[in-house]
Amino acid sequence: MQGGRAETTPIRLSSRGGANAVAGLAVVIGDLQVGVTHKYPIAAELVPRAAALAAAARKRGHLVVFVRTQLRANGSDVSAQNAGVHAIYDMNDDYHQGSTGVELDPGRGRAPGDVVVTKRRASAFAGTDLDVVLRCNGVGMLVVAGSRDERDGGRNGL
Fold it and tell me: Which residues lie below 8 Å from residue 3, measured CB to CB, with a gap of 6+?
């Protein structure tokens, strides 16, 4: 987000053959879940824009992926050595599995055929099944949007 404007950043994914040809496009919308949008007005302002982006992508036949942050309620996936994740876990139950906070904001426009990826750390590009979903759907380019900056996909070899 820059100057109060939503930014989208295309990320070119390299194929296994070494070429950078774009096979397909996916829109990845991150962290527009109830625990975020109901607390942070700037995130809530993004929900209608994300819904419009998702609708436009679907109309063109592109894959839409929603990402949410979720930690186990008992804290078994929260290391004492990871201060950042521990701070998120300790905030309240908005990020705890089973709470309403981890549900996707109802205004973001989820439709049948959309994919939901759950992340347990800061990035959806490491430690989730996002890579498998993108590769299985022939995705070669991403449009990334949402309330967090997910542009680290290129650093993870996607």
Answer: none
CA distances from 124 to 19, 41, 105, 150 (A): 24, 23, 18, 7
Residues in a beta bridge with 112: none
For residues 50 and 68, the answer to whether their CB atoms sit within 8 Å is: no
DSSP code of residue 15: P
Torsion, Cα of 74, 76, 82, 86 (10° steps): 0
- Give the position of tokens 């950078």: 20
Extract the tokens encoding 89.
Answer: 């876990």
Model pTM score: 0.77
19 — phi, psi (to 5°)? -80, 160
The DSSP output letter for 38 is T
In angstroms, what is the C-alpha Rg of the chain? 16
Query: pLDDT per residue over 76-94, tens digit each?
Result: 889 889 898 888 888 888 8
**Is residue 143 within 8 Å of 53, Cβ to Cβ?**
yes
